[in-house]
Amino acid sequence: MLTVHQLTYRYPPASPGQPPLVVFENLSWAVEGRAAAAIVGASGVGKSTLLHVLGGLDAPAAGEVRIGSTSLWELSPTERARFRNRSIGFVFQFHHLLPEFTALENVALPMRMAGVRWDESCRRARRLLERVGLEQRQHHLPAELSGGESQRVALARALANAPPLLLADEPTGNLDERTAADVLGLLHELQRDQGLTLVLVTHDSRLAATCQQVWRLERGQLTPVVA
Ligand SMILES: Nc1ncnc2c1ncn2[C@@H]1O[C@H](COP(=O)(O)OP(=O)(O)OP(=O)(O)O)[C@@H](O)[C@H]1O
Ligand SMILES: [Mg+2]
């Protein structure tokens, strides 16, 4: 499902004459089938950077990201935006909902962008909000939602176009333990029900252990963590 081949990512130097910051180099990795894979690792090892490259948000210096039969970084920017909209769901640590739109509109927008009529997008968005237990909050703005509710809306939005791949970067990192457990439970439930491939980044090994596979990112390489 998700294959990474010889992937290299560098941040440009902070000042001229300095070397670039190499986050990973020649990284190869794969998640087969519809599994849930966790990536753990210390702060600053490059987990978010890797997820952004997998999600088509940050371009690698070299290498390939293959999702199904599509080579993500060989697409033109327009094709990649379209592919992302339909095939990749992304949940950020902080929900990144659009502040001036209601919960319902935030979930409906990706469908509208995919060409679904607005009334149909809203109908489906309502169903997704029901799925995450927020039918009573559909007309709230993000500022009128709690942290856990916002994150559930973000999850519904990520699933709007039923993508085969869901990438989640510390999706519960900003929540209290109880709410985090609820959101994580929901994430796994949706992963199983919809048969998604899930890549979950977390620094919490207990959360990671809820996934079928656990990988550690260290010195730019991913190695399996054996339970
Ligand atoms: N825009 C940027 N420009 C330069 N360096 C950056 C930039 N963003 C991140 N870095 C550096 O790249 C490295 C990897 O950062 P990244 O955010 O991917 O780490 P992370 O594993 O997600 O950490 P955390 O667990 O704290 O979220 C860090 O050393 C960081 O300082
Ligand atoms: Mg991070």
TrEMBL record:
The keyword Nucleotide-binding applies. CDD domains: ABC_MJ0796_LolCDE_FtsE. One of its GO terms (molecular function) is ATP hydrolysis activity. Its EC number is 3.6.3.-. It holds the Pfam family ABC_tran. It comes from the Bacteria. The keyword Transcription does not apply. PROSITE patterns: ABC_TRANSPORTER_1 (PS00211), ABC_TRANSPORTER_2 (PS50893). Transmembrane segments: none annotated. Keywords: ATP-binding, Hydrolase, Nucleotide-binding, Transport. SMART domains: AAA (SM00382). It is an enzyme of class 3 (hydrolase). Residues 2-227 form the ABC transporter domain. This is ABC-type antimicrobial peptide transport system, ATPase component. It comes from Chloracidobacterium thermophilum (strain B). The lineage of its organism: Bacteria, Pseudomonadati, Acidobacteriota, Terriglobia, Terriglobales.
